[in-house]
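Homework help board

Subject: predicted structure for assignment chain

Our instructor gave us this sequence and asked us to write out the predicted structure in token form, then describe one feature. I got the tokens but I'm not sure how to describe them. Can anyone check?
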Amino acid sequence: MQKPDFILDLETQASLSIEKLREQKFAQNLPFMLGELDLRDNQFYYEYANGDISIAEFETHQKHHKTLRYLTFEEAEKLREKFNLLPCPIYT
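My token output:
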């Protein structure tokens, strides 16, 4: 069953809004959080304007996160490919 046009329009608007937010974060030299991709519930990816991606997690009952490790260049590229992420606008 094909999605109705209004659903496709909403998905397009959401995608454009996320891309704009990502660019704004990078322009402010802030990381962009990529969550719910393939990590545990309390973990997420942070993508940085220079192209780096780290894995971080929120510890139980803590307000702050800790960085677990940075992905290698190859791992970051595979992640972008796997989840069809646009190249970092500042990195490219």
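Reply (TA_rk): Your tokens look well-formed. For the description, you could write something like this. The helical segments are 5-27, 73-82. That's the kind of observation they're looking for.
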